[in-house]
Design a protein that fits this description.
Oligomer: single chain
Largest sheet: 7 strands, parallel
Low-confidence stretches: none
Number of domains: 5
Shape: globular
Number of strands: 32
CATH architecture of the largest domain: 3-Layer(aba) Sandwich
Bound molecules: adenosine-5'-diphosphate, zinc ion
Number of helices: 22
Helix content: 25-40%
Structural class: alpha/beta
């Protein structure tokens, strides 16, 4: 039998191998070890053939079949082949993305075994007093009472560091026995809370959603921040768990997992696993197998956890579905949201997308009745909706970005012993360092961008390639001028806040201030204990965190988001404003949201603040329709870069010619143009945007184009990538 194998390398073809003679069938997805060049590689079985396409004599044999059957279900195998075709990404790489690193390397699909000790039958009958001559043994022996208790090495070490020699003796005396148990990452439930009494809207959503259990459907749960979406999820999850089924919950950010994990642990009495990039390889290996083997019932994870096999699939939930981190931005550029829906359909289970600010794509799908739309329009419990205030800062005196009226509001809030949250989406001290006399600007030599001042570290840094140098005060160009900081970053605002509010506790949350492991958690804890007065931060703050005592939220500068060449920018800005606003007044206290702008009449702002997110979304959709932009059309972005600017352009020009010669003429081809930031990390980036009103037609074109692209000699000289449904045109 000849087996077609997919291998995780960047070529779009499969490889044929001979199966061992005794093998008659082999399931797609099974891992095999195969000779490849001079090395051995782990590959995935795709299909078996009666006849080879090449001379059978030249075929090599599979070295080893690593799994007795495929570790992923045939439905999931279908999902991954579908994804490989849709994203035009090599099947080997796509399959490999579904497995944890350990299994990609060929490790056994086995949970790691660890030593456990417990009382033997003889030990169970022993009265501990009989050991009183050997007090250490007696002390250790008593740790195992009541007799059903089994303890792992790690657990024993926690109880008593010096357990080893006593345990050894007790084993020799046949009072203890040793056994191996799978080591899991499962979180032990602490169930102590029962479901809340759902309000009217929640009850409706819950009953609609429970009706979907057991079949495929997509529901868009649109609920303002604090409206109790999580409560809805939990009540639906409970019903799925009661049927003995598993639940997959995806969130955009790792920092959101602990919060949700705590709430789940308090609510459910089932095993919970988690999977995200901050865990070790071993932990991810375990989580994957815990779900695959059914030890665990809930998996909480980020984007890549989507592919975790479920032995009893019941429900997929994507929280904050609008968030662009569900789209992978390098390598296999998949959208976890879109693939979750494909997976739900294949597994015939419901998918819930939840958010306060639905993406335009999802709203469009809801309007076309592809998704069921469920609303939670009121905040749950007693919380009241925040009030928006637009501060026109034209001709206003600003203290590092903070206007006088804002200072007044901050003072008033602090006087009431409530917390303030300030948002600025730029880290560092200032984005530009400029000479006061000759206007020279410190630029990155590798990128088309200026270096960002980081005063705390006395360095200039490039936020795009990581280049850094030390900070100087004298201009290297005119040698006499003094260098000044231009623009605002969180460090600068923080410094000013200390001057304005010297006796207040201020915490800055951005990527620089939270680098140390655990420091973000630490800060969040301090905030929640009320030890912090002013919280200042970036994007990081916009997502999901719950700060009950924050009653004033201010966005210092929204103007930079109003003018962008990327048509996604306005949608992202509107979502950001509403999400940041959602941090205000989540408990009993009413919240206020202040936006500082030089564009108070901007139509986006007026419609968003006067009529709400939904009206904004409707008008944004109308604009997209007029311009035939997604979701009214489909896009694919072909990017190419190289160390010189010629080769990427040559390739993209060649691609343009190829498209013209193809029959599919109604695809709009825009470019090639240089990327919005052309030079990055020493490479020149160019791009070609393809757009078609029919997704199917664009796919047909790419089906023809991409295999040829792999063969082009021009493509070998550059790095190129294809981004289907790009969420970011940079
Ligand atoms: P969301 O996920 O929509 O932001 P949450 O589910 O976190 O909202 O709920 C916000 C707050 O309201 C939480 O403190 C939650 O305990 C509370 N809450 C939710 N539903 C109810 C309810 N039915 N009755 C009382 N309080 C509720
Ligand atoms: Zn100068
Ligand atoms: Zn750079």
């Amino acid at each position: 039998m000849i087996i077609q194998v997919a291998i995780a390398i960047p070529v779009n073809c499969l490889f044929d191998y001979l199966a061992p003679e005794e093998i008659t069938t082999i399931t797609p997805g099974t891992r095999v070890l195969v000779p490849f060049g001079k090395a051995q590689k782990v590959g995935f079985v795709v299909s078996s053939l009666e006849k080879a396409e090449v001379n059978i004599e030249r075929l090599k044999s599979i070295i080893e079949i690593l799994d007795s059957t495929s570790l992923i279900s045939q439905k999931d195998f279908q999902l991954l082949t579908w994804a490989s075709r849709y994203y035009h990404y090599p099947l080997g790489e796509v399959l490999s993305a579904a497995f944890p690193v350990s299994l990609r390397k060929g490790k056994k699909a086995q949970l790691i075994q660890e030593k456990h000790y417990k009382l033997s039958a003889k030990g169970e009958c022993l009265n501990p007093d009989q050991l009183k001559k050997t007090p250490k043994q007696k002390q250790i022996f008593e740790l195992f009472l009541p007799p059903t208790l089994s303890l792992s090495s790690a657990h024993l070490t926690q109880l008593d560091k010096n357990w080893r020699s006593a345990v050894k003796t007790l084993l020799e005396k046949d009072l203890l026995t040793l056994e191996f148990q799978p080591k899991t990452t499962i979180q032990t439930p602490v169930k102590k809370e029962t479901a809340l009494q759902a309000n009217e809207q929640q009850s409706q959503a819950i009953s609609q959603l429970t009706k979907q259990i057991g079949q495929f459907s997509v529901s868009l749960l649109e609920g303002v921040t604090g409206s109790g979406k999580t409560e809805v999820y939990m009540q639906v999850i409970q019903q799925v768990l009661d049927l003995g089924l598993q639940v997959l919950v995806l969130v955009p950010e790792i920092t959101l997992t602990p919060q949700l994990e705590d709430r789940f642990k308090q609510r459910f009495s089932v095993a919970l696993s988690r999977s995200h990039s901050k865990l070790t390889e071993t932990q991810r290996h375990s989580a994957w197998l815990e779900m695959q083997q059914g030890h665990s019932s809930i998996l909480l994870g980020t984007r890549s956890a989507l592919f975790t096999p479920l032995i009893r699939p019941g429900l997929i939930i994507l929280d904050e579905e609008h968030d662009s981190s569900f789209k992978q931005q390098e390598g296999f550029r998949f959208s976890a949201r879109d693939l979750a829906i494909v997976r739900g359909k294949l597994l015939n289970i419901p998918v819930i997308l939840g958010t306060a600010t639905p993406s335009l794509e999802s709203l469009y799908n809801a309007q076309n009745k592809r998704y069921k739309l469920l609303h939670l329009s009121e905040r749950a419990g007693v919380a009241i909706k925040p009030k928006f205030l637009l501060f026109d800062i034209r001709n206003q005196k600003l203290q590092d970005g903070i206007s006088e009226p804002l200072i007044t509001h901050i003072k008033k809030t602090l006087a009431k012993k409530e917390q303030v949250l300030l948002f600025l989406n730029r880290r560092g001290f200032a984005p530009v360092q400029i000479c006061h006399s000759c206007a020279w600007v410190a630029r990155c030599h590798h990128c088309d961008t200026s270096l960002v001042i980081h005063y705390d570290e006395k360095r200039l840094r490039c936020h795009h390639c990581g280049y850094q140098q030390s900070l100087t005060i004298q201009c290297p160009s005119c040698k006499t001028g003094e260098l000044k900081a231009l623009g605002l970053g969180t460090e600068r605002v923080e410094k000013r806040l200390y001057e304005l509010f010297p006796d207040k506790k201020i915490v800055r949350l951005d990527r620089d201030s939270t680098q140390r492991k655990g420091s973000l958690e630490n800060h969040l804890e301090q905030i929640n204990q009320g030890k912090v007065d002013i919280i200042l931060g970036t994007q990081m703050l916009a997502k999901g965190h719950h700060f009950p005592n924050v009653t004033l939220v201010a966005i210092l500068d929204i103007d930079s988001g109003l003018f962008s060449i990327d048509f996604h920018a306005t949608e992202k800005l509107a979502q950001l404003i509403i999400q940041v606003a959602g941090r205000a007044g989540r408990a009993e206290k009413p919240g206020k949201v202040i936006l500082q702008t030089r564009q108070p009449e901007h139509p986006l702002l007026t419609i968003l603040l006067k009529q709400g997110y939904n009206s904004f979304a409707q008008s944004a959709l109308a604009e997209r329709q007029k311009a035939m932009l997604p979701p009214y059309s489909s896009q694919a972005l072909l990017r190419a870069y190289a160390a010189n600017p010629i080769e990427p352009q040559t390739l993209l020009n060649k691609v343009c010619e190829m498209i013209k010669s193809m029959s599919n003429h109604n695809t709009l081809v825009l470019g090639p143009v240089s990327a919005p930031m052309a030079k990055r990390a020493g490479n020149y980036h160019f791009q070609l945007l393809l757009q078609n009103n029919q997704r199917k037609n664009l796919q047909l074109l790419l089906d023809q184009l991409i295999p040829e692209l792999y063969r082009l000699k021009e493509a070998k000289k550059v790095r190129w990538s294809l981004d289907i449904d790009p969420v970011d045109l940079y």
